[in-house]
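Quarterly update from the structural biology core.
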Amino acid sequence: QVQLVESGGGLVQAGDSLRLSCAASGRILSSYAMGWFRQAPGKERDFVAAITWNSGITDYADSVKGRLTISRDNAKNTLYLQMNSLKSEDTAVYYCAARRLGVAQYSYWGQGTQVTVSS
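Predicted structure, tokenized:
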């Protein structure tokens, strides 16, 4: 069982930076991948970025490439999302999630953290 708790959200202005964190408790195995998703008001939850826990291979949605960076600290069992040059369209609830490699669906989800970007 894995528990995920996000933090770091808030209200910022367009162009600002923000770093989200996701603390994982329980056993994050080397065979896991972790990801960030976001859900804007009235929209479906969308994929943002993912990283394999062991090798650090990353994947990004085209809309965030070059502005958002996913990383992890294996020793601290923590996932990060560095967000730069924020835009109003980045406003959403951000969720972290975990899945086993080879399984398409994410099994574990955090409660989400709100990011609001004012223009």
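The first strand starts at residue 2 and ends at 7.
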